[in-house]
Amino acid sequence: MSSNVLGIGLANDLCEPEALAVIHEAYRRGLCSYLTIYLYANYTPEFLRTIRAALPPGLRYVWHAGGEFELPYADGRFADQLPRVAEVASMWSPAWATEDVIVTNFGRTKEAGHPNYVQLLLTEECLDVCVRRMNEITRASPIPFFPEVPHFYAPGPDEMHLATFFRRFVERTGAKLNFDIGHYVSYNLLRQAPMLDRIDEFPLEAVGEINTAGGMVGDAQGLTWIDDYAGPINPITVDCLRALLPRCTGLEAMYTETIGAEPWVVFHNLEILNTLFWPHVEARNNFAERGRVWA
Ligand SMILES: [Fe+2]
C-alpha cells in the first residue's frame, strides 16, 4: 500500500444513538480506516472528549469543517479562524480538512441543503476570491485543506462550467480536491446535460478524496439530484465511480456519508467502496512499480 493512502472512510453524526457501536463494528470488520467528523457548535468540549476516547484506537480522522475554511466572499480573514483550526488539530489530528466551496451559510448556523446555503457563483470574480483564500489557507493552516465540489440547487451566475472553474482553481493553487459525485451530477442535471458532462475537463488528477452518498434523481424532468444520506449508494453512483477512478491518479481516500442510516446501509456502502477502491490502488501501485523497473 502506498504511504499516502488513507483508505475508506465513514461520515457519521457523532450524536446518533448507535454511532459508536456502528463505527466500532465497521472498523472491526476492516471496512473503514477513517471517520469524517462534523464538529457542530452545540457539541460541548466534554461530549467531544468522551466520544474521542470511546472511538477505536487506530481510527484516523478527516474534519468536515463548517465555515472555518469558507472560500469565497467570507467576512474576515482566514487568520481569524486559526485558533479554532489549531484546537481541532490538537484534539483530532485530522489527516486533512474538507468543506464545500459555497458562497456562504448565512450566520454559519446551518448545513448544506438548508435554504440559507448560497451556492458557488461560477464567475471570474468568485474564482479570484477562491484562489486568494485557498492560497492564504495553504500558507497558514496547520491542517491541509481539500475543498469539496459543492451541490447546486438552482441555476446561478455561470460564466464557466463547474469543471472549468475547478481546473483553473487547481492550476492557480495546486490544491487537492474532495470530489462529491452527487454534487457534480447536480450541476449537470440542472443544465439538462449528461451526469458526468465535461468530466474530461475536470482536474481528476488533483482529486485526493471522493465523497459518495445515497441519492437519486429528484423530479420527473431529471433536473435535480437529491442526496439521501440514509440510503444505500445508488447504482448510478457506482457507475460514475467506475468511470472516474482510473483517472483519479492521486486519490488517497473515499468515503460514504451515512447520516441517520440503518447500520446495514453503512456496512453495505462501505463494502461497495472497498470493492472499488483497493483494486484501483493496486493497479496504480503496479503501474508505478513497472515504471521503476523500466526506468
Ligand atoms: Fe460536504
TrEMBL record:
InterPro entries hit by this protein: MbnB/TglH/ChrH (IPR007801)
Pfam families in the cross-refs: MbnB_TglH_ChrH
Gene3D superfamilies membership: Divalent-metal-dependent TIM barrel enzymes
Protein name: DUF692 family protein
Protein source organism: Janthinobacterium fluminis
